[in-house]
Amino acid sequence: GISALLRGTGNPEEPFEVVPVLESGVLIPEDARSVAVCDVNQDARPDLFVGINSAHPSLFLNQSKTGKPFSIRLKGAKGNPTAIGSRVTVSTPNIHLQSAEVYGGSGYLSQSEPVLYFAAPEAVRTVQITIHWPDGSEEQREIDLTKTKLEIEQK
Questions:
Q1: CA-to-CA distance for 42 and 32, rounded, in angstroms?
Q2: Dihedral sign of CA atoms 105, 112, 102, 3 in order
Q3: For residue range 33-89, what is the model confidence (pLDDT) as tens digits?
Q4: Which of 53, 61, 66, 118 has its CA 20 to 30 A from that of 46?
């Protein structure tokens, strides 16, 4: 079969839609079995690495040129150094909230890196973030977007 890239719609009645191949650039005419999200070229945009049964894996570099991308790597407390279970919500003026969670065990024979990816409008210089840590604590910060790769350690 042909694998498809899906995106969230925000509509609980139809939560996902297929992203057309001409828009996504993702076409896998094989039996794709695993996918990992990572930033291969270090541009703060998430890339896809896809494992395919009986074939070589495929790498899809994110070539989007819109927005101001940034990534956040969380450092959790003792016993949870990658902060699995943490959730980050990003607030920027005039757009919807963005939220992502650090998780483990992302798929069959694959593991995405524990990095969260976001984007802000080009004109935005700072964003507000809220971090919900796995121990139940909450932290709010203002992030300067002159850096595209951020590391935040739990207080």
A1: 25
A2: negative
A3: 888 999 999 999 999 999 888 888 899 999 988 889 999 999 999 999 999 999 999
A4: 53
Amino acid at 87: R
Q: Could you identify the residue written with the tokens 């005039």?
A: 94
DSSP track, the chain = --B--EEE-S-SSS-EEEPPHHHH---B-S-EEEEEEE-TTSSSS-EEEEEETTS--EEE-----SSEEEEEEEE-STT-TT-TT-EEEEE-TTS--EEEE--S--BTTB---SEEEEEE-TT--EEEEEEE-TTS-EEEEEEETT-SEEEEE--
Rounded Cα distance, 22 and 26, in Å: 8
> Measured between alpha carbons, how far is 2 from 133 in angstroms, rounded to an integer?
38
Residue-wise pLDDT for 67-79, tens only, equals 899 999 999 999 9
What are 9-38's pLDDT values in tens digits? 888 999 999 999 888 888 887 777 888 999
